[in-house]
Amino acid sequence: MEILCISNGHGEDIIAARICIELRNLGFAAIALPLVGVGNAYSKAEIPIASQFTKKMPSGGFVRMDSRQLARDVQSGLAGLTRRQLGFVWQWSRDRRHQKKLVLAVGDIVPLLFAWLPAQFGGSNFVFVATAKSEYYWRDRQSPLPHIKKPFGGSIFFPWERALMNSNRCKAIFVRDLLTAEVLNQNFKLPALYLGNSMMDGLEPQGLDLGIGADEWAIAILPGSRSPEAYENWLTLMLCAQVTARTIPYNVHFLAAIAPDLDREIIAQSIIQKGWLRLDENTFKVQNARLVLLENGFSDCLHQCHLGLAMAGTATEQMVGLGKPVITIAGNGPQFTRQFAEEQADLLGCSINLIDKPAQAAEVLQKILQDPDYFQEVNLNGLERMGQAGASMRIAKHIASL
């Protein structure tokens, strides 16, 4: 079987690429169409890309958070690019020379619509991996969240989205948590499956020795991956780190997971300006605190830390999935805005402690330190909200069974 994988965002590309790797291991051929950006995640996985239909846009895919970003994308040719992308999917899906074809749509309604439209006019069947939505955004297992209005149509998936998923050409719907699967199954008779969350795959630690003593604390700093926003986030998180170091009565190791696209020297200079002593290229110290810049130790950082200071999307969710509490603070965007931070806190429940300003980190930490049951609660919550590793393989095996 030949598979066309459509995704719309960097995080979605990563998830889609992991599933494609597992499909390739099962003997299937896959080609990727990243609707946003040029598909670096696919390139790293050596998955062929329909590169003539890709283009890097100014927004980086965050048009939902900022209408100005959308306007810049439109000026850069978004409409024409979308038309060409849809034409490619239409031709690929309806090509009769190869009967065994399947479209794998990963993300939100956009790739779902790209898969659905040609399928209704003689194109190939499709499956949908719904990464963007969860019923936890407006409710928990017991009841609706008191500060959230019930979504139109009674589900986080709008009626038109459910109509696309209800097509007889849609052969599987994979959702990101069990609650969402139960709601779609019981309330709307949709054949949604929960096989885990692919976001938790690929996080196996490398066994790096980060120098954390048995009686010392390790705290991850996650500023995000998109510049220049990540640099601004970093300055805010440095203030949180200083408050944290003064509050925790132990030696503290801050493990800063820095995305490869960010300039570590810019970050290093901001650390020095805050009064930290530079010990070597990536290590800094002040009083009872040590800070290490990590470029290739992301998984080890998440596994070895006790909690996180974060202004990030996917990385925050992964940390919660590993059973770690996180302190977040809203930024200026375009990604980690106040709205995004509040929605993330609803999605991830008690694991997230959202504050308005860095000084409030002290109050949160004192509360955490005085609650002996909190870490156990966070561990169980992370498993419920994010699931166990291995979802990509399970999803690929189910697709193969089709």
Assigned CATH superfamily of the largest domain: Glycogen Phosphorylase B
Low-confidence stretches: none
**Overall form:** globular
Distance between the termini: 10 Å
- Rg, alpha carbons: 22 Å
Strand content: 15-25%
Structural class category: alpha/beta
CATH topology of the largest domain: Rossmann fold
InterPro entries: Lipid-A-disac_synthase-rel_put
Protein name: Glycosyltransferase
Organism: Pseudanabaena cinerea FACHB-1277
Attribute tags:
six-stranded parallel beta sheet; eight-stranded mixed beta sheet; Rossmann fold; 402 residues; 17% strand; alpha/beta; 14 strands; Lipid-A-disac_synthase-rel_put; 2 domains; Glycosyltransferase
What's the layout of helices and strands?
Blueprint: E1 2-7, H1 10-25, E2 29-34, H2 40-44, H3 67-75, H4 78-94, E3 101-107, H5 109-119, E4 125-130, H6 159-165, E5 170-175, H7 178-188, E6 192-193, E7 217-222, H8 229-247, E8 252-257, H9 264-273, E9 277-278, E10 283-286, E11 289-294, H10 298-304, E12 307-310, H11 314-321, E13 326-329, H12 338-348, E14 352-355, H13 361-369, H14 374-386, H15 391-401
Parallel strand pairs: 1-2, 1-3, 3-4, 4-5, 5-6, 7-8, 7-12, 8-11, 12-13, 13-14
Antiparallel strand pairs: 9-10, 10-11
